[in-house]
Every structure is written in C-alpha cells, then in structure tokens.
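Exercise 7. Predict the joint structure of the components listed below.
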Amino acid sequence: MNSKNRNNPIILCVKDLKKHFPIRRGFLQKISGWVKAVDGVSFEIERGKTMGLVGESGCGKTTVARLILKLLALDEGKIIYQGVDIGRLSEKEMKPHRKEMQIVFQDPFGSLNPRMTVGQSVEEGLRILGIKNRRMRKARLEKLMEMVGMSPDSTDRYPHEFSGGQRQRIGIARALSVEPSLIICDEPISALDVSIQAQIINLLKDLQDRLGLSYLFISHDLNVVGYLCNTIAVMYMGQIMEYASAEDIFDHPHHPYTRSLLAAIPDSGPQKKLAPTLIKEDIFDSSAALEGCKYRSMCSMEAPRCGKEQVLFEKIGEGHFVRCWKAMKK
Amino acid sequence: MTDNNILLSVQDLKVYFRSADACARAVDGVSFDVRKKETVCIVGESGCGKTVSALSILGLVATPPGEIIDGRIVFAGQNLLELGEKEMQKIRGNHIAMVFQEPLTSLNPVFTIEDQISEAVRIHKKVETESLHEKCIQLLKDVGISDPEQRLEDYPHQLSGGQRQRVMIAMALACDPDLIIADEPTTALDVTVQAQILELFGAIQTKQSMSIVYITHDLGVVAAIADRVYVMYAGMITEQGNAEHIFRNARHPYTQGLLASLPSLSKRGKRLYSIPGAVPDPAYKPAGCPFHPRCPHKAPSCHTEYPNMCDYGQGHLARCPILFQDKGRHI
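Solution:
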C-alpha cells in the first residue's frame, strides 16, 4: 500500500462481478442448472462515503459482500481495492489487505463467540495485527470500547450478558480493532429493536466522521439507506438495476423495480391509502434461465423487446445508471 | 362499557410468567377495545407483551409458566377467561382466527394446503366434501393465489414466503371469523410482498366486514393500515388514539422518541434522535414508570409513582402525567 494509493478517491471499485452456484441433482450429483447469485455487478465507493446496496432477500446482496471480502471465490470480474486488484490474490497475498476491510454482521447473537469474553473477541484482531505487548493491547481495547460507547469494564463479561444493541456495538468494536478503511455492514440494524436502531445508525455516522471510514451498507430498508447513504445501488436477481445518488434514487427513480420498492415503503406519515404496487405476481424462480431482462416477469411495463435482448446498464445522467431500455428512452 | 359497537374488550389484563427465581410481568394491566369493522394496531418492541396479550385472547398462553392473574376479555358479551377449553375451541378459528409471524413454522409440513385450510371448516361447520373443495379454491382465489387448484395439492415447502402467508390468511378466513388477530404477519417478508399482504388485509376487511387486531413493531405499517393504535411498552399501554393523533400529535415521550428516531431521506445530514438505554427485562422492570430510565422529561415522581392515563380528548390517551401537567386533567 503506497501513499499514492492512499490518496485515491475511489476506495473500492467492483467491475462485472460474477458468481454462479451449481444446482446438483440426482444420485451422481450432476449439475442441472446454475443459480446466478451475482451476475455482472459493478459499482464504486468513494473514500469516506457510504454506498447502500438494497434489494429483497435472495437477490445476492450478501454474496456480493462475501465476494468482496474474499470469503467466497469469484468466478469473474475485478475487485479493485485502493488501486490493487485483489480478486485473484491467493490467501497469503491477501493477508495484508484483510485488515483494510471488515464486516459487521446482521445477527449480533450469532456472530460473537459465546465462550469468549467480549475482551477476547475484540482483542483477537489486535493479536493478528501483531501487537504483542499486552499492555498496549489492553489500552487499545479500552479505547475501542469507549469509541463504540461501551464501558471498559464490560470486556470481562460474556456476550449473553448484553442486549442486542450492545452486542452490535461489540461487533462494531471488533471490526474497528484492526483499523480498517472500509466496513461492510450487512443488515446491521435489522435484528435490533426500533428504539435501538437509531443509536447504532448514529454510532456508525459518528465513527465515519471521526475515522474517515467508508461503508458498504447492505439493507432492505430504503428509509435507512436513504438517510445514511450517499449513493444507492438497487439489486435484483444478481444484477444492479439502478445506481445513483440517494437523492436521485428517491426523487427521480427510473427503473420500474426501484419505483415499486419505493411505492412499497410504508410511509410513517398517517395516510390510509397504500400506493398501488407495480408488481404483477409474487412468484419467481431465480434458477430459471431467463433471456433478456430479469425483472420482466414482474414488470408492469413489459414489452416484447424485454424478452429478446440483453439489457445493458447504461448512463442516463451524472452518476445515474439504469438497466432498462424503457427508462433510457424517457 | 355500553358501546354496542365493541366486539372485543380487554380489561386490565395481567399475565405473569413465573420461574424459580423471578416473575416476569409480561402484560401488566392492559386494556383495549376493538370495535366492529375496525383495524386496531398494537405497536411495541420485542418483549413489550404484545404477543402475550394476543395469545391470552385465544387462551393460548402456556400455563405454567404463564398465568393470567387478573382481567377480563369480553368477546361478543362473553368473558373468554371464564370459558372452559371445549367452549374456547368453538371460538378459536371459528369466531376469532389468528395469523402468525412465521408462515413456514406455523404450517404443518406433512399436510397439503387443502388439508390445512379445510381442517378448521371441517371442525366448525357441517360441509359436504364436494363443497369443501370448492370453498378451499374460493379462499385461495380471495387471497390472490394464482392457479388455486394446483396449489391445493402442494405442500408448504413448495410455496414462496408470500404465498405461504397468503395461505395462512386463507386458513384464518376459512370460517368467516368476526375477528382476525395478525401477529407480525409481514415481518419475515420482503417489502414488496409486505405491501401486497397489507393491501390484501384491507381488501378482505372491506369485503367481509371483520375486525383486525394487527400486532407489529413497524410504525410504517401502522400508518398504512391502522384506524386506531395502542402503543405498548414494558407490559403497559403507554398511548392510545386514532392513527392521525398518534402520528401527528404523539403525547407520550416513548411514542415521540420512536417517531423521532425513524430514519428517512428528509432527515439526511441531521443527527437522528435516539432513545437512550435499552428495553427493560420484564422480570426486572424499574419501579414507578417503566420508561423513566430512558425518558428525557422524567421528574422525581416518575421514579416512584406508576403513571396514570391522561385524557387528551377524542379517545387520545397517554400515560404521562408530566407532559400533561399543564392541562391538569386526569382520568
């Protein structure tokens, strides 16, 4: 990591990322089809900024996160982190980059080892960083706990003694322990109580201001993403359907899927009528080899052309990309 | 209660769960009414007692460890708590039906959809097998499932999450109940599917004129469907009123805090309000007002005195005397 890379305004650039999982059937486990979990995903995250990745369950959001962290091997594409393509690096070559990117998981109950004290869990990263001096580790540990708003004496206690919100703070402290530049937050607040969610959102914002962190924020909640993120990518069946600034996504959505998602947000203002949903049916088969646009079976604007040609991801405005030829024409 | 329009009236319900060393007061003096053809939302966070309240209505609280200590649940003139198990069975599924949160765990994996939908009808009504099949098809059509004849032969694992929840609703509708209790029916679903299910509830209600008690933690859902709202915190009702009052003019610091802490695009750049602290353990609730450790308006009396309901008129009540003091009107 040289100093030139540190000044690169784009911290992470993902190009045409692909990951297909085989479906095996029968006694011989023959491959009978492919699930295109991630099928050509590209985006950029600016340093110190937050990108939101939204989509419904099963659309491939978490697979993207796992590919970026190299917890899964990618099939095709590039992952350029601070100017270096880490997509094809071996485990050993990857090691120095590992501490640069960390993840905060959705489930604060499942992601902490119940047999380790909170201190041990958070300290693990420090040991891997190579801080051999015990006293230094302890000082750093106390600093981390203070940063996430926990009292330093909680380090000797076990995860079950904490509430969901506190555990999520511990998860964040653990991610911060190795001083990363990019944190991937995979639905970090959706398992928390409503009154706790705002605490964690504020904490993430404070840490960003203080440490200059960049976030990839994965969520299905458009309200949270709209509040927190600078740019938003809307994902559907392994592809990004629309990518733009948060303001553009909310004020000028172009893709019919983005619009149906926005219409489906129950607004917290008191209004009796729900906006009509634009989705035709509630069934889809993600393994089906669909020609053309993947959204067309659900789309209210479907035309014969949608089934014939590959829909390209094209620019329609400054920093605004859409994968829908009808939206392009407008 | 002389209002003829009231279908269900829960009065001062107390449900405690005892263990060897503690007693969790899960529901601690909850009262609410459901009028005919009305959608009532009960909102609250996990552990506030909203599900236990609903289960008590149907007599489904496991005893032990649970125990209904006090209160009355009056449904169509009858106190349900005084009925025996046999009489309860006649009401359960027939007059009051329930839709649960997790459609996959609430459906039996080894029976077909038809078996499960027709079960309640077979128990409660005398229907010929032929017309039962017709009825099942009609029910699936009503809840918007395409190709109903095929789906009736399917097993739960063959359906998507949204379809399973529709089947659950069809089961609840099977005996034309007067009241449906829906316990977080859309929490496990995607937003677009959630919007469809909420729309479905609205459509069914207009068509069949039934009452719905909808339990949720999502204020957005409440705003979309509720006629009246009850906000629960730590086993008590903190605020009640029609949806308009609750969202425009919340009077309890907890409701105010919840609404202020919701993120949205319009709050960008501003710091979100957050309620400090965490939800109390029902076994170790603070004395006085259970909300006082997290409350920005707390006064010395909040530490010791259980708050009274204060009446703001038009059925809008909030359990916070401190905010009410200027007006000085208590019930």
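Discussion. The longest strand of chain A covers residues 30-46.
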